[in-house]
């Protein structure tokens, strides 16, 4: 699934502008700088994906990629969601971000799960909780992926996992298992691939 091509297929810049439904979609969300680009590169074994999403003008879009086959015959779509929580962003941009996200999240039948990246050094912050709120309200299954595992001491890792589990415990749409990853060491990447493969098998 992750060894084959990973081609850019569609960019959604405004609400209502989405590609026709196709195979299952998995989306990746997270605050700016959480390590989303690095993780997507590690997950898909290539650099093109994040390069496309980081192209000027594309950072505020939902970027769709075909996985496990050529576009049109792909087994899975990966959706790179625009980063959030960036302090310098205008109110208008926040509003259009919200409209874009809500439009996609509400009633996208092929959306199997959103992986919400949370910085392992920081833990769950209010901007992350706002994303959880949106997903709970949209009744979209989501799973937290902690990033930057390599930046924490062994003794600190258990505490951040426990605090994250606690933050998710009463959230209806949250999948309880937390995956701790590092794009630098590869920690957690097989577990993340396994979670995706399991979604496809369901
Ligand atoms: P994005 O804004 O969420 O796409 O984040 P990036 O992937 O561009 O990463 C933001 C910063 O975090 C960069 O300086 C990366 O080098 C760093 N980073 C990303 N992943 C890791 C990781 O697993 N470990 C460490 N130590 N740094 C990381």
Question: What key attributes describe this structure?
Answer:
202 residues, Rossmann fold, cell division, alpha/beta, Probable GTP-binding protein EngB, 35% helix, 23% strand, GTP-bd_ribosome_bio_YsxC, cell cycle, 7-stranded mixed sheet, septation
Helix-strand layout with pairing:
Blueprint lengths: L5 E7 L12 E6 L5 H9 L3 H6 L8 E6 L8 E5 L10 H15 L5 E9 L6 H13 L3 E6 L6 H15 L5 E7 L8 H13 L1
Parallel strand pairs: 2-4, 2-5, 5-6, 6-7
Antiparallel strand pairs: 1-3, 3-4
**What proportion of the residues is helical, as a percent range?**
25-40%
Q: How do the helices and strands follow one another from N- to C-terminus?
A: EEHHEEHEHEHEH
Please identify, by name, the CATH architecture.
3-Layer(aba) Sandwich
Low-confidence spans: none
CATH homology group: P-loop containing nucleotide triphosphate hydrolases
Q: How large, in whole angstroms, is the Cα Rg?
A: 16 Å
Give the strand content. 15-25%
Q: What is the number of helices?
A: 6
CATH fold category name:
Rossmann fold
**Class per helix and strand makeup:** alpha/beta
CATH top level?
Alpha Beta
SS elements, strand count: 7
- What number of structural domains do the residues give? 1
End-to-end CA span: 15 Å
Looking at the structure, what is the overall shape? globular
Give average pLDDT, whole number: 93
